[in-house]
Amino acid sequence: MATLKINQLTKRFGNHVILDNLTFQIEPNKIYGLLGQNGAGKSTLLNIINNRNFPTDGEIHLDNSTVNNNHDALQKLFLMSETSMYPKRSRVSDMFQLANDGYGQFNFAMAHRLTHSFGVDEKAHLSNLSTGLTTIAKLITALCVNADFIFLDEPTLGLDAGHRELFYRELMKTYEERPRTFVLSTHLISEIQNLVEHVWILDHHQFIRNEDVNDLLANAYAISGPSKLVDEYTSDLTILDQQTLSNIKTVYVVQPLSENKVIPDQIKIEHIDLQRAFTALTIGKEN
Ligand SMILES: Nc1ncnc2c1ncn2[C@@H]1O[C@H](COP(=O)(O)OP(=O)(O)OP(=O)(O)O)[C@@H](O)[C@H]1O
Question: Please, which domain of life does this record's source organism belong to (predicted)?
C-alpha cells in the first residue's frame, strides 16, 4: 500500500503563517494522533491533505502521484470533519449511500450494526440530529468507508463518555479486521494514548514532535522533591514545565535521563502520560 508524503508544506492566510514548511510521511496501516492547541492548524493541515484547501507552498504525493485534484489518489483518502458536506435534507442512510457511490464497497453490514449499537435511526434527517448523534453518523460513515487513509477531525465532538468508549473499541476492531491508516485529531489526549502509535504535535506552525508514542513516553518524566535538590539534579536538563507546592518542586522533562547520575533519596522520578507530556511541551514552556 502507498505512503502519503507531505513535502515542504506551508500555509498562510494573508500574512499569517499557519503551517511552516512541514515535511513528513503518513504510512500505511498505522494509527496517528495529530495534537495541537486550539488554532494550531490541525484542521487546516487535514483539509489541505484532503484537497479541501490548497497549500501556499509544498506538495502532497501518494507514492509518486500528486494528490491535488487527482481523483484516483483522492479516492484513497477520506476526511471526517465538523463541516457538513451533506445537503440539508439528507438522511443518515444517504451518507452511507454517498460514501458507497464515491468510494465503492461501503460496509453496509457494519454500518447497520453500528447504527444499532450507537442508537442512531438511519432514516433520521441529519438536520434533526443532536450534535453528538450527527458526530456518530459521520463516524459510522468513516469507519465503514472503503478508503486507505481515514482522517478524523475532532471525532468525538459532542459524544458522551459511553459513546466515546464504544467508538474507540469499534475503531480498534475494524482496524484489526482490515488494517488501514487512521489519523485522529483530538483534544482528548488521555483517551487516545493507548490507541495511537505515532503522534505529531503541532506548535508554532511546525511539528515539535513527530515520533512513536512509546518512544516519547519512555523519555517523559516528572521529577519531584525538595526544590534545592530538584534544581541541582535537573540543572543540565531542559525544564518544560514546573510547579512548586510548599517546598516540594515538580519539574517536567521530555528527554532521556543519564543513567550514570546518582538520584538523591528524596528525589522521585515518575513517568508521565501523553496529556501531561503534551501540556509540558506546548503550554508549559510558554509560562
Ligand atoms: N479561511 C481562513 N481564513 C483565515 N484564517 C483562517 C482560515 N481558516 C483557519 N484560519 C486560522 O488558521 C488558524 C488555524 O486554524 P485551524 O482551524 O486549522 O486550527 P485547529 O488546530 O484545527 O484548531 P482547533 O483545535 O481550535 O479546532 C487559526 O488561527 C484560524 O483562525
Answer: Bacteria
